[in-house]
Amino acid sequence: MIRKKLIAGNWKMNKSSAEAVTLAKDIVEAIGRETSVDIVLCPPFTALESVGRVLEGQSVKLGAQNVHPEKSGAFTGEVSAEMLRGLFTTHVIVGHSERRSYFGETDAFINKKVLTSLANQLKPILCVGETLVEREGGTTLAVVQRHVEGGLLGVTKEQITTVIIAYEPVWAIGTGKVASTEQAQEVHAYIRDLLTKLYGAPLAQKVRILYGGSMKPANAPELLAQKDIDGGLIGGAALESRSFVDLVKSAVAAG
Ligand code: PEP
């Protein structure tokens, strides 16, 4: 197996600290020792510390949903990579489409977050993907290329295998509309080709590319069976332990 599958839960702006602890405990009880798949929980900032305590000694990892590129200073409301590391965070989501659209994040700004994360030993989960208008306008691959190349600017050959890419078609996020396996595999293969051009085949083969967008236990097995789909970034289905645990089990079964 070249690439270990990875299932990450993006809890977005949901769960109080106490609710997050309950959910994390339920997940850990069911799959806390699973090592054949990487599992990452990304609670809101306010629950990172409490969830981190639940994950101590378990194989499940802690992820944040955002990071600011600067080390410290006058950036009200922001959190640095160093602060996240201090809470034993290992992963961080960057460039989620909700941050791109609601908070105006550009590829250049997202690229700074990727570089800061890597410099601080945080594994970035770089989200890329087209809107419905872009898909219908036939520009899906061009948009994905811009997001991938823009996000990875300055990422070295030594660093690239610690980056995780999440292909998330915006029209499939939280809508119940999942990309067909063919649509998803086509874009994943395209991303792998881009990585091959940038870093060479041996390294490109090691980078994990997750699918995100209404992934659920019912559609996961088919998606996870695709050659270039190495796991999932899960929103809605990660908010309930049963569906998240089932998704992890699908990933275990898919190898
Ligand atoms: C996400 O926001 O990253 C996501 C994939 O959400 P959902 O699973 O709810 O579509």
Structural summary, described in words:
The chain is an alpha/beta fold and 255 residues long. 42% of the residues lie in helices and 15% in strands. The chain has eleven helices and eight strands. It has helices at residues 17-31, 48-55, 81-86, 97-102, 107-119, 132-136, 140-151, 181-199, 201-204, 220-224, 241-254, and strands at 6-10, 38-42, 61-64, 91-94, 123-128, 164-167, 208-212, 231-234. It has an eight-stranded parallel barrel, surrounded by five helices. Helix 10 links the parallel strand 7 (208-212) and strand 8 (231-234). Helix 1 runs parallel beside helix 11 (241-254) and helix 5 packs across helix 7. The mean pLDDT is 97. Bound molecules: phosphoenolpyruvate (PEP). Phosphoenolpyruvate binds at residues 10, 168, 173-174, 212-215, 233-237.
List the keywords.
255 residues, alpha/beta, TIM Barrel, 11 helices, 8 strands, 15% strand, binds phosphoenolpyruvate
**Spatial arrangement of strands, main beta sheet:** 1-2-3-4-5-6-7-8
Report the radius of gyration as a whole number of Å: 17 Å
Number of helices: 11
CATH architecture: Alpha-Beta Barrel
Q: Find the count of extended strands (DSSP E, 2+ residues).
A: 8
Structural class: alpha/beta
Instruction: Spell out the CATH superfamily.
Output: Aldolase class I
Mean pLDDT metric: 97
Alpha-carbon distance between the two ends: 8 Å
Element-level helix/strand string: EHEHEHEHHEHHEHHEHEH
Hetero ligands: phosphoenolpyruvate
